[in-house]
Specification:
Elements (H helix, E strand, L loop, with lengths): L1 H42 L2 E3 L6 E8 L2 E8 L2 E4 L9 H9 L4 E2 L2 E3 L15 E7 L4 E10 L4 E6 L2 E9 L29 E6 L3 E6 L5 E5 L2 E4 L2 H10 L7 E4 L17 E12 L5 H38 L4 H13 L6 H20 L6 H39 L3 E15 L4 E6 L5 E5 H5 L22 E8 L2 E14 L47 E6 L8 E11 L2 E3 L1 H12 L5 E3 L11 E7 L4 E8 L4 E6 L2 E6 H16 L3 H5 L2 H6 L1
Antiparallel strand pairs: 1-5, 2-3, 2-7, 3-4, 6-10, 7-8, 8-9, 9-10, 11-12, 11-16, 12-13, 13-14, 15-19, 16-17, 17-18, 18-19, 20-21, 20-26, 21-23, 22-23, 23-24, 25-29, 26-27, 27-28, 28-29
Helix pairs in contact: 4-5, 4-7, 5-6, 6-7, 9-10
């Protein structure tokens, strides 16, 4: 027992010692951390602390010139040029960077300031506060290896401070880095209708026609443009932006500095912009709205007056039971006076009045007549009152909704013109530009401008050799291998009615079979590509054109279909073989187009003449050009087409004429000769 007591006392003692040790260690750690913090503060003392709100002006060197920005009310201005478009956020950033600056090292008793280039500082920042106190900061040498910079304060170079070289980075740049620049005009590419470029090296005009197709104009002659290229050109306007701000108020005699007195190029864009529609009826609409509200309020007051009138009528019945008829008449008159033509209310009141009258007549001598009449009239009064108020409230709500709708601004599309004058190359890798005769000069990157410059009409030529939808074809004359063939197109129109359909589905008994497997590019030309601006297309196997007249919920439908059939030199022609050949013919796309005049000593290997249903003609001649190309000539335009592409079309033609499969046609003597 004694031994156990001794052990317990020992354990308690150990626990006390351990607890004391823990407290001691914790206290030591806390003191050490406080000491380290104090040491760090001593090592990195705060050397500049200027509250932003206290700063009146700040002066520093920009482009080797001293520039002063001073506070004018709540805004910063350039002291010697108050019209200068100061970037307020940029100057605020400068000022806030001076709120607290700490030194990473302090060098005392410096004898030669030139060691740190403080005898000829890179920049000198002078900050003046509202109370007239001035702080001067001189920036000296930068140590690239340590990413530090040497500075002194108030021109006392005996003490030099070492700070991070990013501390004063916001003071670097050109004057226009501290200017609020404009924004390049926003252009919705979908509204662009014309782009014209006049330049020293190139000129061209691309423009949309009345059918919204792009065309290229050259020497007064207009032809179809490559839609993808023209659209890409218009889209480039949406992403165009200024690179740098150069001059906010350039005088005419200063334009030559930027090569804008005689621009390198001028880009003119016609487009549309959505703007709020100006209306002269705004005040009238507002007045009308007030009148409606007033009328609604009047209705409400009138309803209250009528309700009071009915109550008075009821009281009249109570006072004189023998005057029930008069009271009823009064009630009827009050009911008839309900506002805004509340017919339903009049009907309700009339019914109630009839009941009142019958009750009085049947119980003329009964003492309870007064009570019955009073109760009935009270119900009518309450009903009329509620109905009148409800009507007024409804009309008031409708008036408010109408006012809200009227308050929404109407918009309209207005024509705009954007003119970009392009000048000399700038030091930032762009070119100087002036927009819409503005006095402001900017730069735009050459990459952005190259989209428009250095191009000619030829860069926008459409390379589709020939295109005419079979739905608009009347005859096709072909000369090949010294033989002439004529394909004639016939059309038969039929209508189908009372075709059973299910909801959200329309069935067409005039079937249109799946497209031929041997077609080019898989594009649909059936009835959808009659315009010359469509570049490619295919025909369906049955060559039918269908027009459905149906609704998603109708149980019946009517359908009109046009069936195309073909003859070759007067004999029926299989539609599939014609479709295969014709698709290869109209989907012919060139690799390039010649600008020089083309003359051949040989006759064309194939001549194709299209005649449409309106009698318009188009002729294409195919010549062997070299080992890689055929020359397709149409209206003096020369297209170079891959030779294999043309030979595939020749083979499809032979298949159509000979009635053979395409595989067999390849082995024919004519086809072999073409190889």
């Amino acid at each position: 027992m004694k031994k156990k007591s001794v052990n317990l006392i020992t354990a308690v003692g150990v626990l006390v010692v351990l607890s004391g040790a823990y407290v001691g260690v914790k206290t030591y750690v806390a003191k050490q951390e406080a000491a380290d913090t104090e040491s760090a503060e001593e090592e990195n003392p705060e050397i500049i602390s200027i509250a932003s709100a206290d700063v009146k002006s700040i002066k520093f060197v920009i482009d080797k010139k001293e520039v002063t920005f001073e506070k004018n009310g709540d805004s910063w201005v350039k002291s010697d040029e108050t019209d200068f478009p100061v970037d307020q956020d940029k100057i605020d950033t400068l000022v806030s960077s001076l709120n607290s600056i700490k030194a990473e090292r302090t060098l005392e008793n410096v004898e030669d300031a030139s060691e740190y280039e403080l005898d000829q500082p890179e920049n000198t920042i002078t900050v003046t506060t509202e109370d007239g106190e001035t702080t001067v900061i001189q920036l000296g040498m930068e140590n690239d290896s340590t990413s530090q910079e040497y500075i002194d304060l108030n021109e006392d170079s005996s003490t030099v401070y070492v700070v991070s070289n990013s501390t004063f980075s916001s003071f670097e740049g050109t004057l226009y880095d501290f200017a609020k620049s404009g924004v390049f005009p926003t252009v919705d590419s979908s509204t662009v209708s014309k782009i014209s470029v006049e330049g020293k090296d190139s000129s061209y005009v691309v423009e949309k026609d009345e059918n919204n197709f792009w065309n290229i104009t050259d020497d007064g002659e207009t032809e179809k443009a490559d839609s993808a290229k023209a659209t890409s050109l218009a889209s480039a306007l949406s992403s165009m932006a200024y690179a740098s701000y150069v001059n906010y108020n350039c005088a005419k005699d200063e334009l030559s500095q930027y090569g804008l007195d005689k621009p390198y190029a001028e880009i003119t864009v016609d487009y549309q912009e959505e703007v709020e529609k100006e209306s002269t009826d705004d005040e009238n609409e507002a007045e009308n709205g007030d009148e409606e509200v007033s009328e609604a309020s009047g209705d409400e007051n009138q309803a209250d007056e009528n309700a009071d009138s009915e109550t008075d009528g009821s009281e009249s019945l109570d006072e004189d039971a023998d005057s029930e008829t008069d009271g009823n008449e009064s009630s009827d008159e009050d009911a008839d006076s309900e506002t805004d033509g509340n017919e339903s209310l009049d009907e309700d009141v009339d019914v109630a009045d009839t009941e009142d009258s019958e009750a009085v007549e049947n119980e003329n001598t009964d003492e309870t007549a007064d009570d019955n009449v009073e109760a009935e009239d009270t119900d009518v009064t309450e009903s009329d009152d509620e109905a009148g108020v409800e009507t007024a409230d409804t009309e008031s709500a409708e008036s408010s909704e109408d006012a809200e709708e009227d308050s929404e601004p109407e918009t309209e599309m207005v024509d705009r013109e954007l003119v970009i004058q392009v000048g000399d190359q700038s030091s930032d890798g762009g070119r100087y530009v002036r927009v819409n005769d503005s006095n402001e000069i900017y730069t735009i990157s050459e990459d952005s401008l190259d989209t428009f410059l250095g191009k000619t009409n030829a860069d926008f030529w459409d390379l589709t050799v020939s295109y005419l939808s079979a739905n608009n074809l009347d005859t096709l004359d072909v000369n090949y291998g010294g033989e002439d063939y004529i394909v004639n197109v016939s059309r038969e129109t039929s209508e189908d009615e009372n075709v059973e359909t299910s909801d959200n589905e329309t069935e067409d008994e005039n079937t249109t079979d799946s497209t031929s497997s041997d077609v080019a590019d898989g594009n649909d030309v059936e009835g959808n590509a009659a315009d010359d601006n469509t570049s490619s297309g295919d025909l369906t196997g049955e060559d039918t054109e269908n027009t459905d007249d149906s609704s998603s919920t109708a149980s019946t439908t009517s359908s009109t279909s046009v069936t195309l059939s073909y003859t070759l030199n007067g004999k029926d022609l299989d539609s599939t073989t014609f479709t295969t050949f014709y698709n290869k013919l109209i989907n012919m796309t060139a690799q390039k187009r010649l600008t020089d005049e083309f003359k051949s000593n040989e006759d064309p290997e194939m001549t194709v003449k299209f005649t449409d249903i309106d009698g318009n003609e188009m002729e294409v001649e195919y010549y062997s050009y070299d080992t890689n190309y055929y020359a397709a000539v149409i209206n003096k335009k020369v297209y170079l087409v891959n030779k294999m592409t043309v030979k595939e079309m020749f083979n499809a033609y032979e298949t159509m004429v000979n009635g053979e499969t395409e595989t067999e046609a390849i082995a024919t003597p004519t086809a072999e000769a073409e190889k």
